[in-house]
Amino acid sequence: MSIEARLHRADGALTTLHNGRHAWTADLPQALGSDDLAPDPHDLLDSALAACTVLTLELYIRRKQLPVTGLRVSVEHLEEKIEGRVHYQLQRRLFIEGDIAPADRQRLLEIAGKCPIHRVLEGEVAIHTELG
After folding, report:
1. pTM
2. d(CA 72, CA 103)
3. What does the pLDDT average to over 38-48?
4. Is 33 exposed, middle or buried (0-12, 13-18, 19+ CB in 10 A)?
């Protein structure tokens, strides 16, 4: 599966993305001169981690039939330049509601680290670019 992004120049920097089944949009941050009509690429990256974490935990919760009544994940990112390189740090917080034993809460914290996007972001990613 591939994702395609198409810039709509008449709409500033508004970009449509699609994977053949779904479509969504992205935009530049307002500080860079956009109309802020959609999430920026950093928000999309952060949302991929949040969504993957919630869905991974949901599968585990279902399988173990845990009495979770609510589940929310927040992700924030921090960027800093160190020796000319941008260092990107993600802070993820799990909010688990229900009568859950402390050991089960700890296990859910461990499971969060096993979501596929978490593993990709912690691993080494190679990007190969070519002209189409």
Report:
1. 0.89
2. 19
3. 95
4. exposed
